[in-house]
Specification:
Structural class: mainly beta
Number of strands: 6
Strand content: over 45%
Number of domains: 1
Helix content: under 10%
Length: about 80
């Protein structure tokens, strides 16, 4: 089993903002912004087990947590190796 701990910092600016207008329509402008967290705590675990001849089971789980959001992922894989 492997364990992963750490932090992640995105370099997106303090409050990323994009202003745009469609080609040929410069009189109407639009704004898109993103206030997601830029710094996350990352915790993960991954493991593999060969439980029978030619069969392998792998799994992983990860948590990315910021002050306003979180992302939880998990995967399980059964493999036949020949």
């Amino acid at each position: 089993m492997h364990q992963r701990n750490g932090g992640m910092q995105r370099h997106t600016g303090s409050e990323p903002e994009l202003s745009f207008h469609y080609n040929g329509d410069s009189s109407h402008g639009y704004r898109q912004d993103n206030e997601q967290d830029k710094t996350h705590l990352v915790l993960g675990v991954r493991g593999t087990n060969k439980f029978a001849a030619g069969w392998q089971l792998s799994g992983e789980a990860e948590l990315r947590k910021g002050s306003h959001d979180r992302n939880i992922t998990a995967a399980l894989m059964l493999q036949r190796v020949w």
